[in-house]
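Hi! If you just cloned this repository, the fastest way to understand the data is to look at a raw example. We've pasted two of them here, unedited. The first protein comes first, obviously.
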Amino acid sequence: MLGGIFSFHSSWKDRQDTYMHKPLPLQCTSLNFRGFQFAQAMRFAIEEINNSTELLPGISLGYKIYDACASIARGVRVALALANGNQAITAPSETPCARPAQVQAIMGETSSSPCMAIATVIGPFHIPMISHFATCACLSDKTRYPSFLRTIPSDYYQSRALAQLVKHFGWTWVGAIRSNNDYGNNGMAIFIETAQQLGICLEYSVSVFRTDAPDKIQKIIEIIKVSTSKVIVAFLSHKDMDVLIPELSHHNLTGYQWVGSESWIFDSQTAAMDRHHVLDGAIGLSIPKAHVSGMREFMLDVKPLNSTSQKLFTEFWEKLFSCKFKQSKSSAGNQRKCTGHEDVSGVQNSFTYMSLMPIFYNVYKGVYAVAHALHNILSCNKTCNNKVQQDPLTILQHIKNIHFKTKEGDEVYFNENGDPAANYEIINWQPTINGIVDFVTVGLHDSSLPADKQLNLHNKSLFWAQNSQKVPLSVCSEKCPPGTRKVLQKGKPVCCYDCLRCAEGEISSTTDSITCVRCDPEFWSNERRDACVKKVEEFLSYEETMGALLTAASLFGTCMTAVVAFIFFRYRQTPIVRANNSELSFLLLFSLSLCFLCSLTFIGRPSEWSCMLRHTAFGITFVLCISCVLGKTIVVLMAFRATLPGSDVMKWFGPAQQKLSVLGFTLVQVIICILWLTISPPFPLNNFKESKEKIILECALGSAVGFWAVLGYIGLLAMLCFILAFLARKLPDNFNEAKFITFSMLIFCAVWMTFIPAYVSSPGKFSVAVEIFAILASSFGLLVCIFIPKCYIILLKPEKNTKKNMMGKGAP
């Protein structure tokens, strides 16, 4: 004997007991076709088994089916009736709990909360209870519900699958409505936990129950109205959804994308109630479609129900055909009279749509699971052993271990928690021309696969809210484009944020980046801040205007020096050339030409050799140049001393001594340069600090002491030369060279004194330009002040280029 607990009614009349008399039985209302369909599915399976010669041969299955009326209390009451036969206890010594159970297993109930109550009561007696539609994950707890099994997957998998579905379409800002019972509360709790892991935020989460007062339903409607999210996840039972739909239609709440649980998403009765199409385009999970040959015909053959319960059958028949068996005066004009011979095939309503066939199939599989367990217990082959003790615990253990295939080829088995494998179809509500919703399968979800492969959407066109072909957008904040980063808004969920542009030198190349990445030193962020681009390398090159001008000035100085040297060579026998050691003059011109040319080493891309050459060449050539000037200055002073009576100074500073002095002064600088190059030479350096957007290619000094020693030595010689020239400026010569040397040294010192602050403060390539300018300016100063006056005399005033005029003995 199998027990069945189904809700043929969905509610009951509420009454207040006064405790003055025994409470009357519960008066059920609102006939529910689903309960009849589940009962028919159970009867179909039992009759098919009884007609089978392979399963339980010689054994007939019977059934006792009760109406739980969607009441938890009534569900517990009828479960106890199935367990003990509801027989009156006559003998005081009789212990009813010791009697064997009246049924071998119980099919039902449909909802999670009644199942929890019933499973808690009958669990200690180990009576198997197999539900076809109770999905609450809490029922997998075998410590609390040891005898509960089900043929529908746990909501643990459905809730996670719903979160993955929402994430797949990019909906990160959603609202949530749940049934205020164990099914809705537990299912939504798992959904929220998974959603948070996937980066989905809930704008609101509200609960509803079919018995809620109208003002509470109104509050939910107002919450939906003021919300900014356009996607609503509805973890609702079909009964609660049926209560909510009229209110949604009344307030014309269209344009929302509904995501539904298996309880209502493929329910034709729920779809039929949506006359204003507020749920069009809804998407959700359902139990995979099923077909059981012969079940539809059996279920529509309702005539045999007439023998089960006359009153219930009458109520069922009247609702099915919208008629009345007994006409009252008030209803005579509204409804036709029932004959009892109406044709079911001509009726189109939720009873005949058979949209819940997958759930009917679950009832069918539950009955077969019990039958296979009994088949094993009774050691059935061609016959069964009726003498075997059929205690509930043995039956429960065998049901847990069964593994068989239905006639349709589907495997049936239970895991350690009494749950089946979790597979779902993804259903999309697509309205048809005649206004009836078509439940279109658009994908599958298999929880047994790896997380990234569980969701599989077919290449089918989906209908969205308001018949849109475009996936609706539901986010708190628009995606942050590349080049920006997310900054959370204070006091709001993580899905609400502002997009802040990356700082200079930082980029974000992906959408919704939470951080900006700093570019490598050689790179800089582009204008959009979404890519690092190579920094512009800056150095003083020959191609740019400033480099070209300095190069031209250097070559012009060199040519000018060559011209002067040619003039001096051409007129080398004239008194003005011979007056002051012509060899020093030619050596000075040679060193000046080197000074002009050494400036070219500062132009162009710095390399290891150019860095070492530019400073050492500059230091040595300038010392050579200043040494020559210093030698000429000393010669002038010595020459004046030599004209005094009894003076033999010139023999101490003759031509040989002059050359040695130049060589000695220059050798000191050479030694300084060698030490500098040996200890810590200059080297090419990529300077990233000077400019954010450029790489300054420069020559690092290596040893700053070496650099300033070279400059200091040049400065020391220049100051010495300036002092000596200054002392000799008023010597009584017609052509006083010391005066011109004084001017040249004045220019030289002025240039290099201004060079130091200008060099330190100039950025990048301009510091190199300042150094070149100082070299050229001081070189031109020496060339112009010392040699141009002489060239002027040689070329334009040849009459003054006489020994007599040079000695100051010519006509005034």
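Ok, and the second one:
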Amino acid sequence: MNASIAPPTARPAADQAPQLRTLLLTDLCDSTALVERIGDVAAAALFREHDRLVLALQQQWHGRLIDRSDGLLLLFERPIDGLGFALDYTRGLRDLGAAHQVELKARSGLHVGEVLTWRNSEEAVRVGAKPLEVEGLAKPMAGRLMATARPGQILLSAVAEPLAHRSARELGERGLGLLWKSYGRWRFKGVPEAQEIFEVGEPGIAPLRAPPATPKAWRDIPLWRRPAALAAEVAVLAVLGLGLWWATRPQPAIAFANRDWVVVADLRNLTGNHAYDDAVETVLRIALEQSRHVNVVADARVDETLQGMGLDPAKATLDRNVASEIAVRDGVRAVLLPTVADVGGQLKVTLEVVDPATQATVFTETATGRGPEAMVNAVGEASDALRQRLGEALASVQASSAPLDRATTANLDALRAYGLGQAAYATQDLDAAEQHFRQALALDPGFAMARIGLSRIAYTRTDVPAALSELSLALRDTSRLTDRERLYAKAQLAQLRLDRDALEQWQALSKLYPDFHVAAFNTANLLRFANRYRPMRDYARQATARQAVTRPAAWHYLGIADAALGDAATARRDFDAARKAGFPPVFIEPALLEAAQRHPDKALALLPPTNRLPPPMALEHRMARMTIAADAGRWPEAKRVADELAASTREPRQAFEWAARAAVLAVRQHDASPTRLRADAEALLNQAAVALPQTVGRTRESVAAAALYAGYVAAGWGDEAAVRRAVDATRPVVAQSPFNVLANFVALTQARLALQQGDAARARQLLQPHQSEDALLLTRYWQARADGRPTAAPAPASAATRLRAYGEWAAERPPVLEALLPLSGRK
């Protein structure tokens, strides 16, 4: 069509506001020569794969493709999304080229700026116009960066680099390994001001070399650095250099960035009053932990590093030298040396920031007050000033700094007792920790953080009612808690009660404080109960960060997620990493991994003798032995353990006692008489119905799962009344549960009954809402039955399916055997 008669495009309105967007421009290098070299047919196949790669990355990183030819123009809401696309595109091109035995590289330019966007009319699009137009100075700037880059290089503007760098942790472990380089200020043809440019890339993939100067882009070299001027300057500098350096030598500096870490050294107490020893450090940690800019390495992580240095944590002194070595080993940016002294009758608190690489003092902050009662506020004042010196915005400091004398306590002895309780809890000396926390509360009954300490002790002892009581008391007056501790207490309370929003509370806390790894770990824990293994893996990986106190347990949880997702090799490496990090080798999941791969002897060998374990853990180990034996066809052994479990759990109370009763019923389906089986199912259902109103949290969900399993078994012989009782008894729990697992179990129970009654359509209707990846494995089996597909077992013998079956091990789910053994093999 003649261009002169094409319909006009829609232009932006004059008053349309520009929008701040991230622009990524790429150019596929030497694409024309590539087509000539490999031919049209091969090139067409290659570019089809290239287009699929672009589409997948565009969806993954939420990009909007504006234009394409040999290159791409994309818009993103966030710089980190644009960077993620560019990194994956660079790597994807490398892999795609290797598969076709050609070299594929692209130049990339990333910039953040204001752009105008508008849609062309439908008539214009039909004759070849783009659906969406983008204009603005940001577009040529991204183009200049792209054109300047070397093949395979990603260049960023000075606007995009800090925004992307700050969010690099969102890229996971790869983000921590990225290299960032500045190439100084450059002049671009047509751009009036010089621009600083940066490169980011992965070692071994990115060039990581300064781009070459061209007629359109060149380094902005100051006049005094040009060759003609340098010769004259050298003589002057040689004469004045030493004196000038001595007169103007800079103070040491430290490149502290957002969310960097500090090691807090031991207090230097120059007052002679030992009551300050633990109190000052306790208040300082609480003050700094309110920040989302500065992170404090936990005592447990410091002790682990001390052990790696061959030192006894109980005897080692964290002075400048030792604390600096810890920081260097753990990749920590700064060391903080606190000092308290009595100067002329006033208490002086000093915080000294040290560069661990050189052990030089970078700066100090001080605050004073009169008398011991002023210590808390003096520490708060000094820590607020320190946070600003380390780069945190004043508004952020003011917004997150609760008055410490109220959020903690003004009582020096109570603070010291609380600090001692924290130290005792870190070593799992629960009796001593409880004594110290109660002493703190005796001195200040409103000391809410001591209440939280008592709740953690009660939870560790599996005394959920006591833990709930202490948390409820701590939250009576939320002004007595810092913001982070208040959110933590609320999330912990929701988790113990398993409120509907428990998972959302932990996710929100983890996003608000990304380096509060306890929040990430607890999010992973709840996602496990929700059968959501992919996001569980992401949060568990976040909690394995180098400085995380959760690192050992998080590696273990990462192994659980990887196993449930079918990656046995990675799961085994995760469990090994957990053990090397100090996680105790008494948990059953490594054994379940071996059982899933049909190595029963190896699995059983990984389970320690139960007489060495606490009662709840010993019970779970016996369940694991019974399940593994039954899965391996060792029915006499499985039946013997089942009888032992049945005898020891006649009056179940804890979560795994209810799970054990259900697992025993799963074994007895194999060879028990119909009369015995019906009696056992009815007894379990009766007990669960009575217990449900009296239980909370995880135990409540376990009781509901046991009741539903009794109904599920009864559905096998068409007992409609038992199924109705199980569903009615558990309905309030299912409605309140934060997870979809119990609702899924209800559907399975009712679908089994429907099929027993010959109503396949009803069964399909019941199962239809439970088709996601998070659905219970049993759903696949009953869906196949409802669809009329022949199958001998709920769980086909594929490796991935067996891994998923064992991955679903939990007290709140159907027994693992139900998804492993063929129903046709049961008598």
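That's it. A detail worth noticing about the second one: The chain has 36 helices and 15 strands.
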